[in-house]
Amino acid sequence: MDTVYLDNNATTRMDDEVLAEMMPYLTTLYGNASSMHTFGGQLGSKIEEARQRVAALLNCEASEIVFTSGGTESDNAAINGVLAADTAKRHLVISRVEHPAVRTTCQLKRKQGYQLSELPVNAAGQMSLDELAGALGDNVALVSIMYANNETGVIFPMERIAEIVKGRGLLLHVDAVQAVGKLPIDLQRLPVDLLSISGHKLHGPKGVGVLFVRRGTRLAPYLTGGHQESGRRAGTENVAGIVGLGKACELAGQHLDDERRRVAALRDRLEAGLLRDCAGARVNGDTRNRLPNTTNISFEFVEGEAILLLMDHLGIAASSGSACTSGSLEPSHVLRAMGVPYTCVHGSIRFSLSRYNTQAEIDYVIREMPAVINRLRQMSLFAQGAVDPEQAARFHGMWDRVGSQS
Ligand code: PLP
Predict the structure, then answer these.
(1) Is 60 a known active-site residue?
(2) What does pLDDT average to over the chain?
(3) Cα distance between residue 72 and residue 331, in whole Å
(4) Beta-carbon count within 10 A of 96 CB
(5) Ligand 1 atom nearest residue 10's Cα
(6) Torsion angle, CA of 133/154/71/5, rounded to 10 degrees?
(7) Whole-angstrom Cα distance, residue 22 to residue 200?
(8) Is the minimum distance from the CB of 12 to ligand 1 under 6 angstroms?
(9) Is 318 in the pocket of ligand 1 (CB under 6 A)?
(10) Could you tell me if the CB of 178 is within 6 A of ligand 1?
C-alpha cells in the first residue's frame, strides 16, 4: 500500500484540476502581470478571475481579497497592518490555542510594549465567551481568534464571537486557515473584519494565501515597494499560485457538502476503531464542535514521536501533538492549555483526513495501530510504574498540572 496520508492539517495533496489550471502559468505564460505588453498584461484578468473565485467561496466582494504568500503572512499582515494603522490602541486579545503565526507575532508585540490577553480554554478546548467579553476594553486594537484549531479541529463559535466583538465596535481577525474548504463560511453573514486563508490546506498550491479585508477596514500596507494588490501588498504576483488557489476554492465550494459528510464518516470510523482496539486511548477536544476531518487521540504512557516512527514504518503519515525541538520534548501549547495530563499529552497523535482517503486505508490503520501502541507501552517506564509522571513533569520543568483533565 502507498503512504496512507493522514496529515492533511499540515498540508494537502494538490488537486489534479488545480495543477492543470496552473500549468500554463508555470511554463509558457510566464510574463509579469504588471507589464505593459500583452504577454504579461493578459495575466491580470486571470488573477482577477481567481479573486472572484475566492470571493464566491466566502460570499464577499472580490475587491476585499488580498493575495499573500500563505496563512502565516496573512496572519502577520492582519496584526501588523491593524496596529500600524491605529497606533493609539495598544491591546491585543487572542486565545491561548492560536497557531504560532498569530501567537508568536502577538507575543513579540507584547515584548514591544503592547498589552496581550491570551484567553484560556477549558478541557474541551473551548473558550469562555464571558471571559472574552470581559477582556474587551476601549484600548483593544484587535481581537484575533482562530475559526478551527489545527491540532484538535475544535471549532470556536465564531458567530457569537463576532457578535460580542463587533457589538463592542472592535476589530476582529479570524485565522480560518483550517476552516476554509472544510466548513461553509459566509462573510455576508459573519461580520468579521479580517480573515486568513492558506492555499495548501485546501488542495491548492503552497506559498499562496489570502487575507480578506472587509471594505472600510483600516489596514496599513505591510509590504511596500509596489502597487500590486491595490497597494496593500507589494511584490510581483505569484500568478500560477493565485490561479491555483482560485481553482482550489472553486472546487472546495463544489464539493463541500458531499466531502464533509464522507470525510466525517471516515474520521468517525477511524476514531471509533482506535478507541475500541487501543488500550488507554482518549480523544482530545470538543467532539461536537469539530472539523469533519480531524481527530486528536492520546495514547496514554507512550511517546508521540515513537508512535509516529512506527507508523511511518507502516506507511502511515500523521503528526504528533508534541514537537521535538532542540533536544527537549516540548508538549503542544494547545493540549497544555486544555490541561491534558502529562502522561497523555506526549502520546497524542493528530489524524487529519481529506477527500483522498479511502475506507480501505482507514481500516488498515485501525488494524495496525493496536500492535504499535502495545509494543511501545510495554517499553514505557511510566506504564511499568518505574517512573513517577509527576516527577518527570517537574523534571521537564514545563508542567504546572499533572492531574487528570476535569
Ligand atoms: N494558521 C493555522 C491555523 C494553520 O494551521 C497554519 C498552518 O499550519 C497557518 C496558520 C500557517 O499557514 P501557512 O502554512 O500557509 O503559512
Answers:
(1) no
(2) 92
(3) 21
(4) 17
(5) 8
(6) 180
(7) 14
(8) no
(9) no
(10) yes
